[in-house]
Amino acid sequence: MLIDTQTYADSVITDTIVSKAQSLASMKPKNEAEAMATAKDFEAVFLTQMLTPIFENLPTDGPMGGGSGEKIFRSLMVQEYGKSLAESGGIGISDSVYREIMKLQEV
């Protein structure tokens, strides 16, 4: 049985993103720290989605380049880049999401 690694990697990433989005939609943080963590998670998912097309088109030259392993590694690396960017200040999405979460809790 052969497994298409690109399809597998895409399905894992898509499943992760979908489950994260669903959990963020259903989550109702009770305090400010949880609300900020939720907002940063949302920004990390957003940044990962924005970075993915950039890294998909980079060439994989060299003696160790290419292959199915690199495709899987690259998707995981981009996911970590998104998390890292969000934790180091991001692009400001988490602040807006945090304010909206806090507004929704006031109702």
Question: Can you put this structure into words, describing what you see?
Answer:
The protein is mainly α and 107 residues long. The chain contains 4 helices and no strands. Helix 1 (5-26) runs antiparallel to helix 2, helix 2 (32-56) packs antiparallel against helix 3 (68-87) and helix 2 (32-56) packs antiparallel against helix 4. The longest helix has 25 residues, at 32-56. It is elongated.
Give structural attributes:
4 helices, mainly alpha, elongated, 107 residues, 0% strand, single chain
State the end-to-end distance.
Answer: 54 Å
Kindly provide the radius of gyration, computed on alpha-carbon positions and rounded to a whole number of angstroms: 17 Å
Mean pLDDT across the residues is: 77
| Rough outline | elongated
Strand content: under 5%
Question: What ranges have pLDDT less than 50 throughout 5 or more consecutive residues?
Answer: none
SSE string, helix = H, strand = E? Answer: HHHH
- Number of E-type strands: 0
Oligomer: single chain
State the secondary-structure class.
Answer: mainly alpha
The largest sheet is: none
**Count of helix runs:** 4
- The helix content is over 70%
Concise overview:
By secondary structure, the chain is mostly helical. The chain has helices at 5-26, 32-56, 68-87, 93-106.
Annotate the secondary structure layout.
Layout: H1 5-26, H2 32-56, H3 68-87, H4 93-106
Helix pairs in contact: 1-2, 1-3, 2-3, 2-4
